């Protein structure tokens, strides 16, 4: 093609002599971004289902959003969740300084606060179940539980991952592998917080307005 | 939490008991006997030749993108035969069950298949052909070719690549085992809701379908991530976006589509599974379910999936046609842009699958126009290929025949697609075999491209060309079969024949049904020649050996720069890219034989059994869930989590191949091009059965020091 005409074949470089060193950490975090995109598609599908099944018909003469959501409980959960994200941010600051103890403290804090969120959410759900508001009750409740618990599942796997990373940081220190995993876990941990912003706004806050 | 379903349950076996093995059905019994004999023969042969170690070390645990790609293709081709047999059975049933006086055999009122069995066959046919035949073949081809075309040593994530493959294999295993243990879904490959709900399909068939689709969907999503990251991060120096081969552009566009659409399928089918296992009401007809929600979610994946399979096919055509026209591709920039445009517009057309569902004229008009818009970039592509052919020195080698056949089919398939995009026509032919003929027409484009790709790139991977004569016979019989079968089917569609019928009420349709049967018999002959082509080529491989790196003499892109078969390290030294068609540029400037003067150490990942074990765990998870053996499902899930964590503690140090060894291998290639086997350094290329072991990592070999 004409655009290549300027390359002079007599002097052209044919082989990359140094051998390109691909930036392993950048490649790994890029792939994790792509994974998050696919996860975001599942979250959007669940949001779409929640909104479609939010019509009064889908409550099947049972409880609707206004009866189900407890924005105050969810508020305290939100406080815990965002503190957990802040704690992870602290761990990242520690990573920049290469401070192993600060990283472990940050991860430990994120673990405890994340577990606290799950405790608050679990208590809320237990109360709902006591009032017969279970996923089998109606299409609306199915969508409600699935959406909120899908976020909760991220927390469960996030906690597992944090525990694994604490072991690796303690055992191996900051190898390239540990660093990229900490960065990916950061993305994952912030992503679930990002999802929660939407869950809290569209499920809990908006839902509380649905009183009829 | 868990719902009740009819029938007994035990802790150990869940719903499974001996009666679930369909010994009373003669078709399945004989299939089972045949498969068992075949399996015993294969296992016996592998044991006889003492190849278990070789198979395990070199293939099953391999992280080499070429080998994983070959395994993908083998899996896909094998499943394509399975799906094809399903097709033969359906066509034969329809021909046998015409009119009220048609006799019935083996428990069927008409024909030889009772409706429930017929339903399982068409569901399996669709699911297998789309998800477990075409998709693995294309992913396999992308796996092999993309890293070679961009001058990379491997995919961005070799381990993830093996994992994707074994997840796909596990899902395929679930589909296959449903033949002999229990039954398969009878609700269509689309999972017609609410027929898939527990109340209407209480058996395990839908569960087999749903878990296979979910596990396979995860595998394909991960494969898409890998291909995108490979193309974006691993291109050789000098390969700017506008120098990238079109196949890579289409692979990129397809993978973006795959990455964004497969999760929606996973979500839709997971919600269905929640309905079936946890008693939720997403898609149930009562208690607040909404079955159109399923239909929408399914097709939000379903239509992009069509472009996921057709885009790589377009890429393949864009590689084959310039090679055999002996000139550069016409309109490179518009070709790349059209690939991205098709991927983009794929997201706004899904509703044309159910125009008749009453969305209203505004919505239908939007999706109608969006669907017709697809014709613009596709038309651009067709004209680009035509102008590439124009004044080219066209050679009719086997790959080129398949490519030209695909072009013709694309024209008819595209035009009938335009017809279906108009709601007015769509209302008339909705749910008729006209639709079936249209999408088989389009998927045949993909099939033709796949056959073309197999013929085109086979010498690159294995070091010898496929036999010409049998290849041409396969092509002509396949083309004739396509015309006869789908010509008849289009006509039947216009006459109003609905799809998925196990009994045909009108005897006047019999001649055309016989046409369909004749077409599929031609397919049968074509597959015989395809198998014979493989057999003859392997037998006479010495005759068809490729001695140059470029098997066709007029190829253009980078993969033809390295040896055929490709050594395990792809390129001894990473090439620097100077031109859009780098290999053609080097050849035309007399640089084709310039080899690097210095070799450096190459770092490669170690083989690992973890991906196979992950696949086995995924299979256990799926099988356990299908039969509600919860202990097995839980073990599978725990196994997956444990393996993932175990892998993260291993760090995968990899091994280093010293530059001196590379020099020695390159010298032996130069001395005896195209040779593989014992005479050569045992590292060899990927040439299937012949190459021996890659170097085993020795302790401390190239491992980074622990901090």
Explain the layout of strands and helices.
The complex is a heterodimer of chains A (212) and B (707).
Chain A: H1 24-52, H2 65-68, H3 71-97, H4 100-130, H5 139-172, H6 176-208
Chain B: H1 26-48, H2 52-60, H3 65-96, H4 115-149, H5 158-177, H6 205-233, H7 246-277, H8 291-325, H9 332-345, H10 361-373, H11 375-389, H12 398-420, H13 423-429, H14 433-462, H15 468-494, H16 510-539, H17 582-588, E1 602-604, H18 610-626, H19 630-650, E2 655-657, H20 659-671
Antiparallel strand pairs in B: 1-2
Helix pairs in contact in B: 3-4, 3-5, 3-16, 4-5, 4-6, 4-8, 4-14, 5-6, 5-18, 6-7, 6-18, 7-8, 7-9, 8-11, 8-12, 8-14, 9-11, 12-14, 12-15, 14-15, 15-16, 18-19
Structure notes:
The complex is a heterodimer of chains A (212) and B (707). Chain A has 212 residues and is mainly α. Chain A has a single domain, classed as Four Helix Bundle (Hemerythrin (Met), subunit A), CATH 1.20.120.80. Chain A has helices at residues 24-52, 65-68, 71-97, 100-130, 139-172, 176-208. In chain A, helix 1 (24-52) runs antiparallel to helix 5, helix 3 packs antiparallel against helix 6 (176-208) and helix 4 packs antiparallel against helix 5. The mean pLDDT of chain A is 92. Chain B has 707 residues and is mainly α. Chain B has a two-stranded antiparallel sheet with strand order 1-2. In chain B, helix 8 packs across helix 14 (433-462). The longest helix of chain B has 35 residues, at 115-149. Chain B is globular and about 75 Å long. At the A-B interface, helix 1 and helix 5 of A face helix 6, helix 7, helix 8 and helix 19 of B.
């Amino acid at each position: 093609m004409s655009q290549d005409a300027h390359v002079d074949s007599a002097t052209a470089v044919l082989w990359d002599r140094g051998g390109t060193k691909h930036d392993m950490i950048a490649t790994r975090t890029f792939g994790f971004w792509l994974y998050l995109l696919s996860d975001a598609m599942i979250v959007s599908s669940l949001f779409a289902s929640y909104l479609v099944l939010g019509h009064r018909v889908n409550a099947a003469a049972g409880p609707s959003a206004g009866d189900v959501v407890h924005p105050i409980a969810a508020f305290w959960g939100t406080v815990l969740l965002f503190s957990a994200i802040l704690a992870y941010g602290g761990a990242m600051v520690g990573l920049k300084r290469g401070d192993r103890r600060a990283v472990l403290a940050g991860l430990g804090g994120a673990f405890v606060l994340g577990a606290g969120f799950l405790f608050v959410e679990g208590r809320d759900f237990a109360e709902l179940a006591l009032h017969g508001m279970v996923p089998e009750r109606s299409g609306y409740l199915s969508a409600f539980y699935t959406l909120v618990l899908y976020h909760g599942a991220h927390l469960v796997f996030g906690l597992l991952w944090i525990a694994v990373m604490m072991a690796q940081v303690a055992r191996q220190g900051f190898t390239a592998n540990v660093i990229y995993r900490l960065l990916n876990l950061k993305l994952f941990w912030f992503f679930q917080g990002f999802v929660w912003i939407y869950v809290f706004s569209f499920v809990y806050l908006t839902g509380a307005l649905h009183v009829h | 939490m868990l719902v009740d379903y009819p029938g007994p349950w035990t802790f150990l076996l869940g719903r499974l008991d001996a009666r679930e093995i369909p010994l009373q059905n003669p078709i399945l019994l004989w299939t089972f006997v045949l498969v068992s004999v075949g399996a015993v023969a294969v296992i016996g042969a592998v044991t006889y030749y003492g190849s278990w170690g070789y198979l395990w070390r070199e293939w099953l645990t391999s992280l080499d993108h070429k080998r994983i790609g070959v395994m993908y293709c083998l899996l896909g081709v094998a499943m394509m035969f399975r799906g094809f047999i399903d097709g033969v059975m359906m066509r034969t049933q329809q021909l046998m069950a015409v009119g009220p006086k048609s006799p019935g055999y083996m428990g069927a009122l008409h024909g030889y298949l009772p409706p429930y069995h017929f339903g399982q066959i068409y569901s399996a046919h669709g699911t297998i052909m789309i998800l477990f035949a075409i998709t693995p073949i294309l992913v396999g081809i992308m796996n092999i070719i993309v890293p070679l075309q961009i001058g990379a040593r491997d995919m961005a994530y070799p381990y993830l690549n093996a994992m994707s493959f074994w997840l796909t294999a596990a899902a395929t295993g679930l589909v296959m085992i449903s033949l002999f243990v229990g039954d398969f879904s009878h609700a269509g490959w689309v999972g017609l809701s609410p027929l898939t709900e527990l109340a209407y399909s209480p058996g395990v068939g839908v569960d087999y379908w749903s878990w296979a689709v979910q596990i396979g969907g995860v595998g394909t999503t991960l494969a898409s991530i890998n291909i995108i990251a490979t193309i974006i991060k691993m291109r050789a120096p000098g390969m700017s976006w506008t120098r990238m081969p079109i196949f890579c552009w289409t692979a990129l566009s397809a993978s973006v589509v795959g990455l964004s659409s497969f999760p929606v399928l996973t979500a839709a089918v997971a919600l269905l599974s929640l309905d079936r296992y946890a008693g939720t009401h997403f898609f149930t007809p009562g208690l607040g379910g909404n079955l159109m929600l399923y239909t929408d979610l399914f097709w939000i994946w379903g239509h992009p999936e069509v472009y996921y399979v057709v885009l790589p096919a377009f890429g393949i055509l864009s590689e084959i046609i310039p090679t055999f026209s002996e000139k550069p591709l016409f309109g490179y920039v518009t070709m790349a842009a059209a690939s991205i445009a098709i991927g983009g517009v794929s997201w706004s057309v899904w509703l044309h699958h159910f125009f008749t569902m009453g969305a209203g004229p505004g919505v239908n008009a939007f999706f109608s126009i969006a669907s017709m818009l697809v014709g613009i970039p596709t038309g651009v592509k067709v004209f680009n290929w035509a102008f590439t052919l124009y004044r080219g020195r066209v050679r009719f080698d086997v790959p080129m025949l398949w490519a030209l056949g695909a072009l013709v089919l694309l024209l008819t398939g595209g035009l009938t697609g335009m017809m279906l995009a108009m709601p007015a026509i769509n209302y008339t032919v909705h749910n008729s075999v006209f639709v079936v003929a249209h999408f088989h027409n389009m998927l045949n484009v993909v099939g033709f491209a796949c056959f073309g790709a197999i013929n085109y790139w086979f010498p690159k991977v294995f070091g010898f060309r496929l036999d010409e004569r049998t290849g041409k016979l396969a092509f002509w019989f396949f083309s004739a079969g396509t015309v006869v079968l789908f010509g008849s089917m289009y006509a039947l569609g216009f006459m109003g024949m609905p799809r998925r019928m196990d009994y045909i009420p009108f005897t006047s349709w019999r001649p055309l049904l016989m046409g369909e049967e004749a077409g599929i018999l031609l397919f049968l002959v074509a597959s015989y020649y395809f198998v014979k082509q493989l057999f003859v080529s392997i037998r006479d491989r010495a005759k068809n050996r490729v001695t140059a790196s470029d098997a066709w003499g007029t190829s253009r892109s980078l993969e033809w720069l390295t040896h055929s078969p490709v050594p395990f390290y792809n390129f001894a030294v990473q090439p620097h890219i100077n031109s859009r068609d780098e290999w053609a540029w080097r050849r035309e400037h007399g640089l084709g034989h310039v080899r690097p003067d210095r070799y450096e150490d190459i770092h490669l990942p170690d083989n690992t059994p973890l991906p196979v074990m992950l696949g086995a765990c995924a299979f256990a998870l799926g099988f356990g869930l299908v039969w509600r053996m919860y202990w097995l499902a839980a073990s599978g899930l725990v196994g997956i989590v444990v393996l993932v964590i175990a892998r993260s503690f291993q760090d995968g140090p990899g091994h280093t191949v010293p530059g001196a060894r590379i020099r020695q291998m390159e010298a032996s290639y130069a001395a005896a091009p195209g040779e593989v086997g014992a005479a050569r350094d045992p590292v060899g290329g990927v040439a299937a059965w012949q190459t021996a072991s890659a170097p085993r990592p020795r302790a401390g070999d190239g491992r980074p020091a622990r901090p």
